[in-house]
Specification:
Length: about 280
């Protein structure tokens, strides 16, 4: 648990100003408020809620919004959330349960980037493991994947993690010849491993064997593209209940943590946002 405990210690020491977006029409808003209140009372963060409206009594049963938790109410909270981050009003931001379709374009426009290079941080059997790319529109080319790896390398350095890249593909290495599509994927992963090694990065091709990569201590699971990465994330975190700290947008100069609207708790992303803020 050393890695995850370190993140908690970093957050407690930093106690960053963290903004989180909230759509109170979503059924997850009470869970989001509970996470925000716990993170505030345990002194992990200095909070700021950015929401579309004030919560109803059922959502805010303790009446903490406006008392313990300051809030900005806006007809376009996704815009305010990004502008607060860009302008340095807060140290870091968490998407919360706002729509990705609204937040992601706003981030790209505000920071002038086409690829956020999102990397999920997971806790697997007490160890921290990154999974990337996880945005369905990311990682479409080798160049994109190399940029994702660069961002993950910086994230690993900030968290004090060793950096070893497990390149994942569409089949076992011995499966060549069974499918032309799998053959193409294996060829692409071989080429990617070669490109990474030429940059001095510890990398290996694990084919489809994610479990072996984790067992052998690799710290970045690099999916073939963002669609595969998103499916892997949902299988691990949303079905398998592997703990997730959210996905850090590593291409940005500021700390932004992306979250799934299907989460039942937003505590760990808030803690990561404070640790990196």
């Amino acid at each position: 648990m050393i890695g995850s405990l370190l993140i908690h210690e970093m957050a407690l020491k930093r106690r960053a100003r963290v903004a989180i977006g909230c759509d109170f029409s979503s059924k997850t808003s009470p869970l989001l408020l509970n996470s925000l209140l716990f993170a505030t009372r345990e002194r992990y963060i200095e909070p700021l809620l950015v929401a579309d409206r004030l919560p109803g009594n059922e959502e805010d049963s303790e009446g903490v919004v406006g008392n313990e938790i300051p809030a900005i109410i806006s007809p376009s909270p996704w815009e305010d959330l990004v502008q607060l981050l860009k302008g340095g009003v807060v140290d870091s931001a968490v998407r919360g349960n706002l729509s990705s379709r609204k937040v992601v374009p706003e981030l790209r426009s505000a920071f002038g980037c086409t690829n956020l290079c999102r990397a999920s941080l997971l806790e697997v059997e007490g160890r921290l493991v990154m999974l990337a790319p996880v945005g369905i529109d990311e990682g479409d080319s080798q160049g994109d994947l190399l940029n994702v790896v660069d961002g993950c390398s910086r994230l690993a350095s900030r968290l004090g993690m060793p950096f070893r890249v497990a390149v994942i593909s569409g089949g076992r290495l011995e499966d060549r010849g069974r499918s032309s599509r799998v053959d193409r994927m294996l060829d692409s992963s071989d080429a990617l491993v070669g490109a990474l090694k030429s940059k001095g990065i510890d990398a290996a091709n694990f084919g489809v064997e994610i479990e072996r990569a984790v067992d052998e201590g690799f710290t970045l699971i690099l999916a073939p593209d963002g669609v595969f990465g998103n499916l892997i994330f949902r299988s691990l975190a949303l079905v398998g209940k592997v703990q997730s700290y959210g996905a850090c947008a590593t291409a940005l100069p500021k700390t932004f943590i992306d979250t799934s609207r299907s989460k039942t708790s937003y505590l760990l992303p808030l803690i990561l946002a404070s640790a990196l803020g």
